[in-house]
Amino acid sequence: MNIAGAFLELGKRILLHGLFWLVVLLFFTFFFGFEGAGFNTIITFSAFFLPVTMGTTYAFVYRLIPDYLILKKYLQFVLYSLAVFIISATYISISAFYGIILTAGYDYQENFPLTKSLIYILISVYLVVAIASAFSLLKYNYSAFAKNEELKNRILEAQLKLKEQELQYLKTQIHPHFLFNTLNTIYGLSLANKPSTPEMILRLSELLDYILYQTKKPLVKLEDEVNHIRNYIDLERKRFQDTLEIELNCDRIPLETEIAPMLLLPFVENSFKHGKGNDGKLQISIWIKLKEENLDFKIVNSIRKSSERTVGQGIGLQNIKRRLDLIYGDDYQLNIENRKETFCVYLQLNTSKFKADV
Question: Which residue ranges run through the membrane (predicted)?
Fold first, then answer.
């Protein structure tokens, strides 16, 4: 804030305080009115109590409330408040005595009984102090609430940014992992001069388009994910030839059904990478079932009996678990079973419970 702005803000505060105390003075004038006294006499008498009212009010608003009450130092607040009340009551009594002398003369007992009016004066002064203190408390509470809300919003914003960065990092890990295995497949076919190599390159280009562009979206159509699973299976069929037995059972998928991108494809890729049968053949079965908004995905691949692979091992499965946690929270179930001759992955999630804002 520049100097001009600071002076403008100070001027506004002085004006508001001045208007407030002018209203207080008029209130005292109305409250202290007594029979037979003129307006000038009453307002002069009321002005005697303005300094002590201002001092008591500012003591509570700028000292006792922020330094003790807000900080929950209740004992100190009570003790200092009592001290302020005693001092202010003394000054009010002195101000009342001299105010009556100067405004009503020495004949004050008949027109202005001090013993009766002093109670009214104390009530009126402390009523102003109480109103100002209550307003100050409301202001502090509102300010604290606003700061807490701002802090919460900043924390949420930071969490969302970290979540977005982590998801992007996980995606960059998945893509090279997937592409590396696919390129190895094409490389093997090119060495054997297979005529199907151009077709596989075309399939791969479609997968690359999906990975590089479609996966930047927070959601993709489930139908697109399944179609690219089919493309990937076609690529692997060329590589495995007669050593692959695979079946894909998929329900009809509504066009509006969406999931996070690259959510199912890594499981399929993982089964090709690690699966192997005792008879030299790789057997893979995939089921994709959709019941309203619940997606059931299951994939089973054969493994050798001597396989020492542990459940959940590998970068691909670890990343997909973390992505599921970030995107779907508690609205999914992932079960991985490493049996004697098969490796099974079962995923169930609610497609309407997408939580990631990326």
Answer: 14-34, 40-65, 77-106, 118-138
